[in-house]
């Protein structure tokens, strides 16, 4: 069975974000220069945010490997040069941000959090637990973030790599190899809010780094909301349940995304870290702003966010 985060431990997240705090739901790129101070101290400066919930996030990644790793890790038209340079960037970032967790010695990375040692030459793993598909796979398995790589040439762009253990109702196998536009078309209001998509892609690849946020509401603490249930779980047990005011359980799901450009490679690295916060723990002010943001959504946006029946949730929040 896929693990759920322990609700009593969620307050131990390293950081807390409220991207809805203008009281309006917006479908925009929302790019902030990285780093930007959001009130979380040194953690806002980091690309990777490692906290005391690491074992639970790591267990969720291990569960994906147990089920079927290619359901969650895919690559398409990804050059060896891009793999190598982004892998080296990840190693440098991890050893800089968390030298007490990651130590590099030549072509070896000691990872004390998982008690693993990763060996490589160029981009090829020399020795490793047999579960890893590549150096990128091994590195992405040491953090609480998912990662993605976007590439482009003079004609098009495409998602070249996805390591997605915490999918939020979308599929790695469906998105890999698709354009940035195609991958985001299901987002209600995306095309209208981003009429100059080529300019956005150029900004992601040529400038930055950036940080941005996406948010929604979920009724459980499972990180993995892949649209296709595992074969060993009944299809009726897999989807998150509708909000029940008689047994109210609802959580903010905030995704912090960092975007790192590699203009010489015509590519960009994305990191995606989900945070879960019980709605009842929000301040009165944040509850009010959240209600306003939900009420500002169009019917299509509510449908996309699975909030088409949000009246019960709003009524419960108003009483809390």
* H/E topology pattern: EHEHEEEEHEEHHHHEEEHHH
Distance between termini? 32 Å
Question: How many β-strand runs?
Answer: 11
Low-pLDDT stretches:
none
The number of domains: 1
Question: Radius of gyration, rounded?
Answer: 19 Å
Sheet with the most strands, sense and barrel status: 7 strands, antiparallel
How much of the sequence lies in strands comes to 15-25%
Structural class estimated from helices and strands: alpha+beta
Number of helices: 10
Helix % is 25-40%
Shape: globular
Q: What can you tell me about this protein's structure?
A:
The protein is of the alpha+beta class and 320 residues long. The chain has one domain (7-13, 32-239, 257-279). The chain is built from ten helices and eleven strands. The strands form two sheets. The chain has a seven-stranded antiparallel β-sheet. Strands 3-4-5-6 form a four-stranded antiparallel β-sheet. A hairpin with a 2-residue loop joins β3 and β4. The longest helix is centred in the N-terminal third of the chain and has 18 residues, at 80-97. 30% of the residues are buried.
